Amino acid sequence: MALLYTQGKPKKITQPFTADILELDYQGLGVAKINGKTWFIENALPQEKVDARVLEEKRQYGLGTATRILHPSPLRQQPQCHYFSQCGGCQNQHIPIELQRSAKQKALMQRLSRLQSTPIQFMPLLQGDEWGYRRRVRLSIRFDGKGRKLQIGLRRKNSQQIIPIERCLVLAQPLNNLLPKLTALFAQWSMPQQLGHIELVSADNGVAMLLRHVKNIAENDRTLLLNFAEQHQLMLFVQEHDAIEHWRGAQPYYGLDDGSQLQFDIRDFIQINTELNRQMITTALDWLSLNSQDHVLDLFCGMGNFTLPLSRKVKSAVGIEGVSAMVEKARANAERNRCTNVQFYQADLDQPFISQPWAQQPFNKILLDPPRTGAAFALQALCQLAAEKILYVSCNPATLVRDTEILLNAGYQLDKVAMIDMFPHTGHLESISLYQKK
Fold first, then answer.
1. What backbone torsions phi and psi does residue 121 show, to the nearest 5 degrees?
2. Which terminal residue of the chain, N or C, has fewer Cβ atoms less than 10 Å from its own Cβ?
3. Edge-to-edge, what's the strand order for the sheet holding 149-155?
4. pLDDT digits (tens, 9 = 90+) for 338-371
């Protein structure tokens, strides 16, 4: 028996191989079939023949990267970014943006269409500018003591090495404007080996900057940093040891189409694509068909990104968030924006919550925006609320499919779906889906 099993196992590919690319998956990887196994190959397009090397091989699939394009596709384009071959960020710049989007849409449609027999409305994708869309970046810093050389930039693909950059094509322009100036600033630093990393956020009221410093900043460096922040009108935050201190400027905020302004702390999660965040909120409000008699529940609400716009159109809104500090910020944002019909509560949604006092309210519509791991742990309790409509914002198609199956089995029907191109030139696939009670 053991001998027969050993002979039947597929032989692993350990040497470079040649592959004919059949199609593109949603992450921008070329798909090939070799000896009955599916291979996903980086930097390969449909109709291409490529030489590739193995990155990883499992029993059911393999991952490779193209080392030479033997027959290039006419669709292949020259990446615009100077750092494309090194940086691990925007890995799909060789693919025309229309093909990137259509591959993602196709993957989403195929995965969801298999789940129910009734038709699903696949709505036009939500899209914006393909460049200059990121309002947040984390910059790594490395000081080579031997060569007395300071590097500020992004991590090299699959490496801890740093690529010094002067400009990033997907960054918002106010952040790009700072990149060469930051390099000049820290070239004057007296203790560059103590520099950690930099985070930049382009808020609606200016640029916020966080400097991570592994020890206390020397007095002359402190003066340099404060003068720099004053010159460039930065909201400055500094982390020495563990605590983050606010050294200069106002608190950052971003605005929404309804006039709301949401304040946040420098390390807080916010959607990095300003335009797509606004489109996403508008779509959610429209699909839920909100009216003045609705009672809406917003799960994984953060600081109120969806909850505050929802509250302006309904009788009452409740936001639930697992992190207490975010709940306090959501409450402060509600008060600041004079949203009086909204309440926020802290709750661990991976625990049964149907008996919680806030869950006793008669919610007829629900919105959830979970992390990449999805919301499977909360769906049983959520379905017990028996809302007529559930709107699900997803950042992971795998967990979306899993959670959709749970909702369908609980008596809901998937009504409509749209892809959100939140991160052009990357393999991320975001979406928004509406479920209705049968």
1. -80, 110
2. N
3. 162-164, 149-155, 136-144, 195-203, 206-213, 235-240, 243-248
4. 999 999 999 999 888 988 999 999 999 999 999 9
Per-residue pLDDT tens over the stretch 377-416: 999 999 999 999 999 999 999 999 999 999 999 999 999 9
Give me the residue label for tokens 């036009």.
124
| pLDDT tens per residue across span 273-326 | 999 999 999 999 999 999 999 999 999 999 999 999 999 999 999 999 999 999
Helix (H) or strand (E) holding 19: strand 17-20
SS (H, E, C) 24-61: ECCCCCEEEEECCEEEEEECCCCCCEEEEEEEEECCCE
CA 359 from centre of chain: 29
**Distance between CA atoms of 331 and 186, rounded to whole angstroms?**
38
pTM (2 decimals)? 0.92
Q: Phi and psi of 245, rounded to 5°? A: -115, 145
For residues 93 and 101, give the distance between their C-alpha atoms in angstroms, rounded to a whole number: 12
Cα–Cα separations (whole angstroms), residue 293 to 305, 314, 358: 21, 6, 18
| φ/ψ of residue 326, rounded to 5 | -70, -35
Structure tokens at 321: 């968030």
The two beta strands, 342-346 and 365-368, are unpaired
DSSP for 400-433, written as a single string: HHHHHHHHHHTTEEEEEEEEE--STTSS--EEEE
Among 318, 199, 198, 212, smallest CA distance to 264 is for 199
State the Cα–Cα distance between residues 233 and 248, nearest whole angstrom: 9
Q: Which helix (H) or strand (E) holds 176?
A: helix 173-186
How far from the centroid of its chain's Cα atoms is residue 383's Cα? 26
Residues acting as catalytic residues: 395
Bridge partners for 401 per DSSP: none
Q: Is the pLDDT of residue 252 over 90?
A: yes
Strand 235-240 versus strand 365-368 pairing type? unpaired
Rounded to 10°, the helix 173-186/219-231 angle is 150
